Amino acid sequence: MVQDPAPPRNPGMPLELDWVEQVRVNRSAVERRAATLGTRRSVKKEWQAGWLLRAVTCMDLTTLASDDTAGRVQRLCAKARRPVRPELLEAMGVQRTAVKVGAVCVYHAFVETAVAALEGSGIPVAAVSTAFPHGLAPMETRLAEIRASVAAGAREIDVVITRGHVLTGNWTALYDEVRAFRDACGDAHLKTILATGELGTLRAAYRASLVAMMAGTDFIKTSTGKEGVNATLPVGLTMVRALREYGERSGVSVGFKPAGGIRTAKDALLWLTLMKEEVGDPWLHPALFRFGASSLLADIERQLEHHVTGRYSAFHRHPLA
Ligand SMILES: O=C[C@H](O)COP(=O)(O)O
Predict the structure, then answer these.
(1) What InterPro entries does this protein's entry cite (predicted)?
(2) pLDDT tens digits, one per residue of 110-165
(3) Distance between CA atoms of 23 and 3, rounded to whole angstroms?
(4) Is 298 in the pocket of ligand 1 (CB under 6 A)?
(5) Which ranges in 186-216 belong to alpha helices (H)?
(6) pTM of the prediction?
(7) Catalytic residue IDs
(8) Bridge-based pairing state of the strands 125-129 and 156-160
């Protein structure tokens, strides 16, 4: 499994308010569809192990705790280089060097540490930015934070939006904000966190997704991991349908990153199923799909160990950092 090259950027387009205003989402239909994801397709044995390895390569291995230290970030980066134990990969007939994570995601304070720890690995560093997780610092401060993380070596920037722009229907303000974030990113890829758990409705999540894509975001991301409700399948389905519609109209493929509360291998398989069924194989690669997760890897490694040995080991045998 070789890491894909970064996809072309999303250039964005002018804000089309009529398109945003006409959006309707049928919540009960979306919830029904989300509920069928785990029942219609079951991924078994070798295929399941293959899908779990794919999930690892699509993972933004994350630490976003207020007690993060350089040591913790260095240990996480070591894990990012070798996310699955070599003997498990060998037993599955997979090359030792073939599996690495999509990115390591940290606060700005640890970008330099992570860049140094990942040198030569090809694994990009993603920085959360713009006063993550609330996003309420002055605009100049938020833009300066993006520029500082890019200067420190971050190749991906995960920004948070002003939720109030969505809650008041101020689409122009949201568009201008995301556009300014994108400009500040330069060549770094922009992931826009909508914090859908705070947006009230699926319709708002769809509309905010469209506006962020029109403003040129390269990925839309569900959550910071700090909201009361983070990545749910109904909200994921809604955002993925927005990016599908954006792709149909603009010809541009935008990436998707569910994040927050995704902890089990079973969850990972459900999200991959959603992507495969709604938008197809291009979204099963790190160029267009990432999990934002701090503890998912431990359960995936445990399931892979079970696949190889037939036994489950304790979680403490799979430390992440
Ligand atoms: O962006 C990633 C999230 O902050 C991770 O959330 P989590 O700790 O619930 O996995």
Answers:
(1) Aldolase_TIM (IPR013785), DeoC (IPR011343), DeoC/FbaB/LacD_aldolase (IPR002915)
(2) 999 999 999 999 999 999 999 999 999 999 999 999 999 999 999 999 999 999 99
(3) 36
(4) no
(5) 202-214
(6) 0.95
(7) 158, 221, 257
(8) parallel
Alpha helices per DSSP H over 62-138: 70-81, 86-91, 111-117
CA dihedral for 75, 290, 36, 44, sign (positive or negative): negative
> What is the CA(263)–ligand 1 centre distance, in A?
9
Ligand 1 atom at minimal distance to the Cα of residue 230: 9
* Spatial distance between the Cα atoms of 182 and 251, rounded to a whole number of angstroms: 19
Task: Sheet with 255-257: list strands edge to edge.
Answer: 255-257, 219-221, 189-193, 156-160, 125-129, 103-106, 59-62, 291-293
Asked if the bond preceding 319 is cis, omega within 30° of 0, the reply is: no
pLDDT tens digits, 177-187: 999 999 999 99
In the chain, the domains with their CATH numbers are 17-309 (3.20.20.70)
Looking at the DSSP assignment, which residues form a beta bridge with residue 189? 156
- From the alpha carbon of 261, which atom of ligand 1 is closest? 9
**ipTM confidence score:** 0.95
Atom 4 in ligand 1: residue holding the nearest Cα: 225
